[in-house]
Amino acid sequence: MGTRESDVKEHQACTTISLSNYHWSDPPDENKWADCVHCGMCLESCPTYELTGQEQHSPRGRVHLIKSVAEGKIEVNEQFMDPVFACLDCRACTTACPADVDVGGLIEEARGQIRQAIPLTGYRKTVSNFFLHRLFPHQNRLNTVGGLLKFYQKSGMQKVVRKTGLLKIMPDHLAEMEGIMPELTQPVRKKYKNQNVIKAKGKTKHEVALLTGCVMDVMFSDINEATINVLTRNGNDVVIPQNQTCCGALHVHAGDREMGRKLAKQNIEAFNDAKKIIVNAAGCGCMMKEYAELFREEPEWHEKALSFSAKVEDVSKYLHDTGYEQPQAEIKTRITYHDACHLAHGQGVRQEPRNILLDIPGVEMVHMPNADRCCGSAGIYNITNPEMAGAVLESKMENVPDDVEMISMGNPGCMLQMAMGVQKYGRNQKIVHTVQLLDWAYKKEDGLRGQE
Amino acid sequence: MGLKGLKTKDKHIKNLAKIVGDRSILHHKEDLLAYDCDGFTIHKYLPKAVVFPKDTLEVSRLVSYCSDNRLPFLARGAGTGLSGGAIPVNGEVVISLVKMKKLLSVDYENKRAVVEPGFVNLKLTNSISDKGYYYAPDPSSQYCCTIGGNVAENAGGAHCLKYGVTTNHILGLEVVLPNGEIIEIGNNGIPDSPGYDLLGLITGSEGTLGIVTKITVRILKNPEAKQTVLAYFDDVSDGSHAVSDIISAGIVPAALEMMDKTAIEGVESAAFPVGHPRDIKALLLIEVDGIAAGIDEQISQILDVCKNRNVREVKVAQDEAERARWWANRKTGFGAMGAISPDYLVQDGVIPRSRLPEVLNRINQISEESGLRIANIFHAGDGNLHPLVLFDARIPGQTELALSAGSACLQACADVGGTITGEHGVGIEKREEMRFVFTDEEIQAQTDIREVFNPENLLNAGKLFPSPGRCAEVKKERKEAAL
């Protein structure tokens, strides 16, 4: 029996799909690019377009190319890879876009296809494997800081780490703070290993679970400690689920969606009992709010991911929304605030951290022009695309006001990158996390009370 | 970033690269695809190459090379044009001017500024606002479009009702002619030079007469006061009549914008909603500015007019933040259509203000006949309509349907004594519609002017005028053949 003409018509959609040059599962989502009408409103928001002036390095250009592969016009090859991987995934275009096109989601999906079509080789493979497979998913290895520090020394970033407070070298004029600065602490996951709940100081109002993060807990355990202090002080019991893992953002940014899914599943299960999941790293928070994106082809996990994501909240927004005690002690400092991309563009959190800083007596906030422009850190972008990352950092540093003593932000990747900028351009600002400053203010208040 | 080595055998690519450098030329298909259209996406053509000159001299050398080797070429800015003026229909060498993006000088005393063509429109205002000045032409794409592109298209904007379009703000131009020669026109801000108005001719010539490489513009002192009104109507014709009434009352608003129900659905579904009621039929966004003394009186007159026309609700912006929200909602309106439709085609007809109600009715009819939704977001004050035809290019036949619905809208404008473009230009989109408003002889007269500047027609060919296959140029060719 021959094929009837009417049947052929019904299969038209299949014919269209077969044109696509995306050959693996989980391809870029057609509905995402269907929102883009190519108006160009995204152009000026894009750091890589600003630097190159080339439209394949602009959001609408990238969306156009991603769509062109699906239409069979081009292949997934090196020339296509260049613009897709040169994207910082900073999401500034998402803020600028009148139609809410999810450019970041498309980029990550396209990277997933590229990584499968063109596996990494050579130096990039080594770097990528080291970070993404052998280091971040394994907390015990991360805790063996030695290897990490060695890498940092080799890449000239040791001084950077010092700037961030790990080794507690501070400008003289901030010596006043030394007394209230936290000691170099061990990772909080290790420290509270045998403690089911870190109890709130005073009456318990809420119970929250904390993502301690992979890099955060090793390099910036003092920030995790500060986060716990600030949360417990404001009536929160804090739980640290022990089987949590790296959020997977770096893997997804790099196109390793399989590993991303694996880590996501582990976290979804680890935080199953939590009512609220508090994150102090913008990149992790944004990723965890988007877990469902990874499971478009696994309905059961898609559902779980959605309810997991609904519980995720950045610490600054959580404190702001649930209320916090205004510190009484004065921290006299001039400070500016940098919007981490995955906080401002990724999660729409802009005013909350600023309000917290403004609530600390003595803090004088100086506005940073283009505060929500990417600093160039972008996960491990500064390692994989050093030239572009350097140029992005340079224009960021030009916007840091001259006369501030500190730059506050809410993401560890930005903290490292900005510290590098401070170092490289001979500036002397201290890089702090928003909750650190709040914690210091509380500590100072307690100290003064103790003296009385 | 950019290219790693040139990797080509094409001698033209190699020679063009010698002029601008290996890192300032694109020639791989994957990169060129990003340049196969501009804000008008219905037709797509790959360029031969894209080059990024850094100064006038490089532009001149590129143009000379193309001209000597008979390579078609065109200039491109941010590529946000809505009529396809920067689409390389003949596989052109695209000369992108985005790297020429400096603000060269500002002369506050004589109220003028000199910019390179790739300088973004809004950046000019941002650069001079601390001194209390601004650049008036404000196309909705001003966040990203370039002033060079604005000159090519003679761009308008919401505030052009009171302040005029781009041509009213251009004081001088440096132009690279299609043979590579660099000329300067305009007398650096001295108004009304003797001789023909070449500035007026180049401005709005859609990149067919030369490539502008330096622009002297007029800058204005910020108005002392500014008030913005938002009015919601249950009936489109009440809204339309209110527009005419406001102007008849002797008020010249800085801006007088209108959106219809479908447009409101779009902007409210998109990234910058302000909470307009979804069930109203039309809204007006009205802004008055000037010396503080008369503003309140004008506002109360406007409120009265709206009330007389059965307005459901009318309010004055309480602060700058509210005003900014209303404008962001309006200015991102076209892009916002992406939230309710995969594709759109925007038209740009102009009509006498008094004919608004009947033309809007006609557009509504066209929508019903074609089965495609049409949203209207437009500059009501100067009768500049923007019907946005919503369609889905993935559905076979819809693109053609949208094009013919768009064309019918322009016919409706021409029928009431209006014209086919107010500010977006003709480009490739409205070439055939030029016949709605010009006779063959009139079109011929214009192509004769083009020939003076662009005799080989290598620069941006196939734009602005109907294709020769159906127009006077053919008759001319036939005539010449007969001789």
From TrEMBL, chain A:
It holds the Pfam family CCG. It comes from the Bacteria. GO terms for molecular function: 4 iron, 4 sulfur cluster binding; glycolate dehydrogenase activity; metal ion binding. Keywords: 4Fe-4S, Electron transport, Iron, Iron-sulfur, Metal-binding, Repeat, Transport. Residues 26-56, 77-101 form the 4Fe-4S ferredoxin-type domain. Its cofactor is [4Fe-4S] cluster. The keyword Glycoprotein does not apply. Its EC number is 1.1.99.14. InterPro entries: 4Fe4S_Fe-S-bd, 4Fe4S_Fe_S_CS, Cys_rich_dom, Glc_ox_4Fe-4S, Helical_ferredxn. Binds 2 [4Fe-4S] clusters. It catalyses: (R)-lactate + A = pyruvate + AH2; glycolate + A = glyoxylate + AH2. Component of a complex that catalyzes the oxidation of glycolate to glyoxylate. This is Glycolate oxidase iron-sulfur subunit.
UniProtKB/TrEMBL annotation, chain B:
Residues 43-222 form the FAD-binding PCMH-type domain. Transmembrane segments: none annotated. Signal peptide: none annotated. Keywords: FAD, Flavoprotein, Oxidoreductase. PROSITE patterns: FAD_PCMH. Its cofactor is FAD. It holds the Pfam family FAD-oxidase_C. GO terms for molecular function: FAD binding; oxidoreductase activity. InterPro entries: FAD-bd_oxidored_4_C, FAD-bd_PCMH, FAD-bd_PCMH-like_sf, FAD-bd_PCMH_sub1, FAD-bd_PCMH_sub2, FAD-linked_Oxase-like_C, FAD-linked_OxidoTrans_Type4, Oxid_FAD_bind_N. It comes from the Bacteria. This is Glycolate oxidase.
